[in-house]
Amino acid sequence: MLKGAPIHPQTLGEHLRLARIDRGLNQVKVAALLGVVYQTVVKWEHNLIPIGPKSRARLVVFLGYDPAALDAKPTADSIGN
């Protein structure tokens, strides 16, 4: 188990946190990759603010899958990014 990572992520923010920790990235690096400030990543991961449509699309690309999809599973391409 990864320290601080949700065991069963339910929200897009929780999926983001799990992927970030799994990839060994900090919130500042993820924010730079997604084009937002790190405070936004913190708030998304803790479900404090909603994720807008443009940011949501970038998050799905970052994750490599859409958690809202019926059978959302990480793709082989998304593992280890």
Descriptive notes:
This protein has 81 residues and is mostly helical. Helices cover 47% and strands 0% of the residues. The protein contains four helices and no strands. The model has no long low-confidence stretch (mean pLDDT 86).
Which SSEs are present, and which pair or pack?
Layout: H1 12-22, H2 27-34, H3 38-45, H4 53-63
Helix pairs in contact: 1-3, 1-4, 2-3
Briefly characterize the structure.
The protein has four helices and no strands.
The parts where pLDDT drops under 50 for at least 5 residues are none
Q: Tell me the β content.
A: under 5%
Q: Indicate the radius of gyration in whole angstroms.
A: 12 Å
Shape: globular
Mean pLDDT: 86
Order of helices and strands: HHHH
User: What proportion of the residues is helical, as a percent range?
Assistant: 40-55%
Number of helices: 4
**Structural class, from helix and strand content?**
mainly alpha
Query: Quick one: how many beta strands?
Result: 0
Q: What distance lies between the first and last C-alpha atoms, to the nearest angstrom?
A: 19 Å
Let me know the largest β-sheet: none
